[in-house]
Design brief:
The chain has seven helices and 26 strands. It is an alpha+beta fold and 371 residues long. The strands form four sheets. Strands 14-11-12-13-26-25-24-18-22 form a nine-stranded antiparallel beta sheet.
């Protein structure tokens, strides 16, 4: 086996595929990358941790057919620190790998490709296409709200729903809910519903760019595949009954507010300086005509703060977890948001001032009688 490739292209592909490599695997082979050449100018690099596979395909020259498994960490560091613009790699029958670039020569031992686990063979039944920048935005504005509690795995991922020319992504953890909507440039042939693990989606976002290049998402009964330019990511889907989030939406609102996101979030972050993980004191908010007063009292001290808003509907006092409030505000990616409230036990609803591209819900905290 032998091939020559541009160092920068190889380095990027190795880094991407390494995103699916297990750092401390039960089997040493899973800490490696499967390197394959087809003898026709194509080099394939695969990382697989038995749950997620990432396959990068890049051009090569002077290649000879073959396969080998090289430790991902060692290989990545070597390629990244080479000085030459091109890299030539050859592998002998004993899996000894020679790496040459410029004036530098490395010789390392690798493993047989015969020991590498077989990737899932999937018959994808449905697909949808969406621009990279839209998908990146949809994932980041919902994945923050997924559960980290493995006791209910179905909520550790985001639900994707495709109907006609609309795609919706939903994240929920029992305390907050994030919904993101977008229009597709083409109408889906049939409705789709699938649930992708949050940790997979974080890997997907690292592969996306701020372009309108289309990403193809292929879906089968148990797997999904993301095709992003020269890279394919395969993941298992989460199974189980996802929350009926429509039932969680408040049916009424008594107060409607338009608030500057930065002013609101900065105020909550100032109060957060007095909150620690062991004793998570709530943020107390008093909504009045065109003003919000913020209070927080903890063993570390007290804070009173306020900021202006545009309000209609009356007054309300309500409490929230500071982190959940900041997450929702910062992930709105807006300068201003519309906030809807009903009573002290009903969720806060955060929306764009215009349209419905996102809907964030944050459940309140029951406040004790103020001292």
């Amino acid at each position: 086996m032998k091939f020559t490739v541009e160092r920068s292209i190889l380095s990027e592909a190795v880094a991407t595929a390494s995103g699916a490599v297990a750092s401390k695997a039960a089997s040493q082979i899973l800490e490696g990358l499967l390197i394959e050449t087809d003898g026709k100018g194509s080099l394939k690099i695969t990382g697989f941790d038995l749950e997620i596979a990432i396959i990068c395909t890049i051009p090569s020259i002077n290649d000879e057919y073959g396969s080998v498994v090289i430790n991902a960490s060692t290989f990545g560091e070597i390629i990244r620190k080479l000085a030459g613009t091109q890299v030539t790699i050859s592998v002998d029958e004993n899996n000894k790998v020679d790496i040459d670039s410029g004036m530098t020569h490395f010789s390392i031992m690798a493993s047989s490709y015969m020991d590498y686990p077989e990737l899932p063979s999937v018959n994808y039944e449905n697909s949808v296409e969406i621009e990279e920048n839209k998908l990146e935005s949809m994932i980041k504005q919902t994945v923050y709200a997924v559960s980290t509690n493995e006791a209910k795995p179905v909520h550790t991922g985001c639900l994707f729903e495709v109907n006609g020319n609309n795609i919706r992504v939903v994240g929920v953890d029992g305390y907050r809910l994030a919904i993101r909507n977008e229009e597709l440039s083409s109408t889906a042939t049939e409705a789709l519903k699938f649930n992708i693990p949050g940790k997979t989606l974080l890997k997907v976002t690292r592969m996306l760019k701020e372009t309108d290049t289309k990403v193809k998402i292929n879906v089968s009964r148990k797997h999904a595949q993301f095709e992003i330019e020269n890279t394919i990511l395969i993941t298992r889907l989460l199974e189980g009954e996802f929350l009926n989030y429509n039932n969680a939406m408040p049916k009424e609102k008594s107060i409607e507010i338009v608030s500057d996101v930065k002013a609101f979030a900065d105020s909550v972050e100032r109060a957060s300086l007095l909150i620690n993980e062991r004793q998570r004191s709530p943020i107390r908010l008093k909504f009045t005509d065109d003003q919000v007063k913020l209070f927080c009292s903890s063993p570390l001290g007290k804070i009173e703060d306020m900021f202006d808003v545009k309000s209609s509907g009356g007054n309300l006092e309500i409490g929230f977890n500071n982190k959940f409030l900041i997450d929702a505000l910062r992930n709105s990616r807006e300068d201003q948001v519309k906030i809807e409230l009903n009573n002290s036990l009903s969720p806060m609803v955060i929306k764009p001032v215009e349209g419905d591209s996102f809907i964030f819900l944050v459940l309140p905290v029951r406040l004790k009688t103020e001292e």
